Structure prediction request, 179 residues.
Amino acid sequence: MATENFGWLMEMKLLLSNNNEKYTGVQDIFNFLELDINKDIINEYFSILNNDGGIPFSKYSLSVLKKMETEITECGASVTILALAESSESQPDSFHFLGFDVSGDSFFHSPLFRTFFETPESTYFNAIRERFSKHLNKKGLFSDISIATEFTQYIRENNSENVFESDGNIRPIAIYSIT
Prediction:
């Protein structure tokens, strides 16, 4: 089925509200396969995924995500559809800006999440937390693109310990606007 693009590049991802209510970003992973969801809707969902595991933004893909949201909600789970874009200049009317997140080597991993919400105490992470925690908003994201850029540069320049390289994804690659 052909999709109609809204005219700007965007990746979307279906996210289940996680247990950590202080963070809503690319690190949220939701395994909906454990729920009793209509198999046709699951197949439709998988048909819109691209090679990176993202979903190109279109009216059709948004309608598929809304079907998934309805199915998941009927199973008793809390779900949120977040739109990830490499620019905050344009966003669909039905979405509201939440903040900026940073993606690591993998599209689904966030150095921001790993630094502030997952890693244990250490000199390396404590220095980052001390410098940037005051810039996190209620969603655990940066509200200012310049702070997200500074965070990304700081980690790149100060990652002498090779903390979380590759599979661990502390190495920042891209900054996404989360809506």
